[in-house]
Prior knowledge:
alpha+beta
Amino acid sequence: MVSVTLTVVQPDQGEFAWSITVDPVQPRDDNAARQIRAVLSRAEAGASIQLWIERASTDDDQYAAELGFQPYRDLWRMQRSLPTDRSPIATRAFVPVADDDEFLRVNNRAFHWHPEQGGLTRQDLADRMAEPWYDAEGFRLHEQGGRLAGFCWTKVHPDETPPGGEIYAIAVDPDFHGQGLGKPMTLAGLDHLADLGLTVGFLYVEADNLPAVATYRGLGFDHHSTNRAYRLIVE
């Protein structure tokens, strides 16, 4: 039996005291429900609890509702085959330390609204670069006039069948909006993943971010699955 993965969400990561993730292969059964209720029993009254169900189906809404959770956010996985058309813009690999401040500035301007990617600190960046999946070559930067105009950070998932390449984070500095950089920045990341020999590229996007969904559909991505977030206030 695969256990529910429990993660304590730190105060600077949003409103939730606890975040519970149900793995795609975890049965939505009484065992999982007991584990979720065990987390709820440890939370203080008034605390917000988040439940993520990966690859959610319509049946999961009822399962979550029986535990007291209500849906509030859908994160789509969109994917396509590789390779794609090559990107027309030049990019380079991220250089730790030298690029830290400029990346954080652009990231936090572009993602000021985002519950996970927004408000990154130097320590957050260091923690991510310490992860085993981190590869500076897969962290592509595009510059204009000596400034960072945008970035595309990729991540390889060797445990998937076949191995997949993720567009982990992509952003354009607001000062460079209107230049149509989103598409070529995405292609630059996909180029890197294809050059590694990967045949599947994917990304996650908020389902209600209609402009982004349309952009990715225009790049050949299709909806693959939905990770759904639910919330509950402990009484």
